[in-house]
Amino acid sequence: MALDRLNPSYERYASNRDVISLFSGAMGLDIGMSNAGLNVVVGQDFDASCVGTMKANGHNVLSGDIRDIQPQELLDIAGL
């Protein structure tokens, strides 16, 4: 079944390629998403080494336990 048949309004979102990466780790998946044309606007992880790597590579990062992060906080940081 084609994606547009599952969600007929999908076309209106086709130009928005912004994504939030949760449990980012060393951002391996994020690199793949970027290579596929997506824009990772913010990554999240609780591990200090992973957060440091993301920051060193110039990414927007929200550090901390995902259970303690409010959804609106994440959206605000992402600019979404």
Strand-helix topology:
Elements: H1 3-6, E1 18-21, H2 28-35, E2 39-45, H3 48-56, E3 61-63, H4 71-78
Parallel strand pairs: 1-2, 2-3
Describe this structure in words.
The chain has 80 residues and is α/β, with parallel strands linked by helices. It has one domain. It is 36% helix and 18% strand. Strands 1-2-3 form a three-stranded parallel sheet, sandwiched between helices. The radius of gyration is 14 Å and the shape is globular.
List key phrases describing it.
36% helix, 18% strand, globular, 3-stranded parallel sheet, alpha/beta, 3 strands, single chain, 80 residues
Shape from CA axes?
globular
Strand proportion? 15-25%
Helix content: 25-40%
Unreliable runs: none
Using only CA atoms, what is the Rg?
Answer: 14 Å
The main pleated sheet reads as: 3 strands, parallel
Class from secondary-structure proportions: alpha/beta
- The ordered string of helix (H) and strand (E) elements is HEHEHEH
Main-sheet strand order equals 1-2-3
Put simply, the count of helices is 4
End-to-end separation: 30 Å
Average pLDDT rating: 84
- List the domain count as a whole number: 1
Count of extended strands: 3
Compact summary:
The protein is built from four helices and three strands.
